[in-house]
């Protein structure tokens, strides 16, 4: 079953630029290396620039699991940890229509 | 500028089926009638079936504004109001990567 992910990150105001640089790298690496990735995008809220969200689509749960254990993903998460203002929210979705 | 929208709805447990029926109709009408609609999908959280999210892409803010004032959208919102367990969250995004 195809899985969609909305991963919201609340980034510290003085860290958004650095976050964006690293998140763009993560987007590039994921698209390039991670099998089963249909869509992987970095979005920024138009009213709140500190809300940076990754919008994802995966062929199935297995593809997503492999992405989560890929080195480029783990490296990005390790870097992101100190940039967060508060915990983010991650939702996995199935498509109804 | 293209706009993406993530509209999260927290629906009462005993109203999710009714919500889904009406939301599917809204998806159909929006795709059929609303110019500038690139993507309009109904998603359900895999762990929390009460979290029903509409994922949208619009050509620009003007297209989104017209959708928000369309009769089928207003009718759907009027119906949805009594189904909500708590206020939802709507985010408008620009794409960085």
TrEMBL record, chains A, B:
PROSITE patterns: ABM. Residues 3-92 form the ABM domain. It comes from the Bacteria. Keywords: Monooxygenase, Oxidoreductase. SUPFAM superfamilies: Dimeric alpha+beta barrel. InterPro entries: ABM_dom (IPR007138), AI-2_Isomerase_LsrG (IPR050744), Dimeric_a/b-barrel (IPR011008). One of its GO terms (molecular function) is monooxygenase activity. This is Antibiotic biosynthesis monooxygenase.
């Amino acid at each position: 079953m195809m899985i969609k992910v909305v991963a919201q990150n609340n980034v510290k105001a003085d860290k958004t630029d650095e976050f964006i640089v690293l998140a763009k790298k993560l987007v590039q690496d994921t698209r390039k290396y991670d099998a089963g990735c249909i869509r992987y995008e970095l979005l920024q809220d138009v009213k709140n620039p500190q809300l940076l969200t990754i919008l994802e689509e995966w062929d199935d749960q297995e593809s997503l699991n492999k992405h989560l254990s890929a080195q480029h993903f783990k490296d990005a998460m390790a870097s992101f940890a100190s940039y967060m203002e508060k915990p983010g929210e991650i939702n996995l979705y199935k498509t109804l229509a």
